[in-house]
Design brief:
Elements: E1 3-8, H1 14-19, E2 28-32, E3 39-40, E4 45-50, E5 55-59, E6 64-69, E7 82-88
Antiparallel strand pairs: 1-7, 2-4, 3-6, 4-5, 6-7
Length: 89
């Protein structure tokens, strides 16, 4: 059995804070691209965020098997929100 790792929303780019045009309003999950049991690779897109102005793909920082998905389309999320857990090799 592999190690269980957490995949979280990354820290938002500093430019969002300074220019403000992307991060106006809530950040929500637009689409969940994986489900439990899926095998994903490093840098595969796992969810799409909607910022009100921009759709942003969130990639996995690890390869492995999706154990549990913690978010659903329409959920409001913030930096460091837990997206999913992965079992790595």
């Amino acid at each position: 059995m592999g190690k269980i790792v957490e995949v979280r929303i990354p820290i938002y780019p500093e430019c969002w804070e300074t220019c403000g045009s992307c991060a106006q309003g809530d950040v929500t999950v637009d689409e969940v691209l994986v489900k439990p049991g899926d095998i994903i690779q490093f840098d595969d897109n796992v969810i799409v965020l909607e910022t009100g102005k921009v759709a942003l793909d969130i990639q996995s920082p690890h390869a492995g098997r999706v154990v549990e998905v913690m978010v659903a389309a329409g959920d409001e999320v913030a930096e460091r929100t837990l997206i999913l857990t992965l079992e790595t090799a």
